[in-house]
Amino acid sequence: MIEIKTSTLSDGEFNRGVFAKQDIKKGTLLHEAPVIPYPNKEHEHIEKTVLADYAFEYGINHTAILLGYGMLFNHSYTPNATYKINFDNHTFDFYAYTDIQAGEEILINYNGDVDNQELLWFDREGENE
Q1: Do residues 108 and 83 lie in contact, with contact meaning Cβ atoms separated by under 8 Å?
Q2: pTM, whole model, 2 decimals?
Q3: Fewer CB within 10 Å: C terminus or N terminus of the chain?
Q4: What is the pLDDT of residues 9-34, one digit of tens each?
Q5: CB of 35 within 8 A of CB of 58?
């Protein structure tokens, strides 16, 4: 249903994204990404690496690195997908927020809420220059 392809939205060395291989209906479960959680106090070590840009909040006291395709969804303030944390299964479950056409890149709002328009760190860079 989904695949990894080159994205024009992603900067940097890897420029990958998640794309629909077929038409996908709103509400469809797209992917269950297993997590590797760690205590927030350990995040200072992750911040020294490229993984810091890919970490997700995982409850109040933990942060998580997502496996599978989880770390490859790119950001949009008008996403066509969303995710829910499934603490029982230790996964982030990604769902189609809108109907998605075959070939379309699947995008989530990194703020965690599809309607949250707060600028993210990469959009705030250079604001005060």
Answers
A1: yes
A2: 0.88
A3: C
A4: 866 667 899 999 999 999 999 999 99
A5: yes
